[in-house]
Amino acid sequence: MTHPVFFLNGPNANLYGLDKAGTYGSESFASIQARCQDLAATLGLTLDFRQSNHEGVLVDWIQEARLNADAIVINAAGLSYSSVPILDALLAFDGPIIETHMSNIWKRERFRHHSYVSKAATGVIAGLGALGYQLALTAVAELLDQTA
Prior knowledge:
The chain is of the alpha/beta class.
């Protein structure tokens, strides 16, 4: 049995890898997506990997996940620190939610130390770059296997 999982990425994630000396590393968003798709297939997950720069689109996708996904992995990016609508949508989702951040948000600016997404998340992975995305998928697979 494969489990459908929505992997949602927020603003500017599509720019990963374009700033080689930047906070988010040198790997492109497309490369990270391909690696996640490959891993998901080996874990028995059907991955729907998406990115938007718009809060309302992310809310729509979270609501869509209520009917079409068993779990959500989300890097809401900058919206993590400001979006009550994303929090409210996540709170209405019944499955596991893993919050991810490429950087260690607690080593960055103070405003990044509080994430609204964390209030709804089953767990949080931060500071491990693209490896954190893979760990999030592994965690989701384990959590879904425990409830099957």
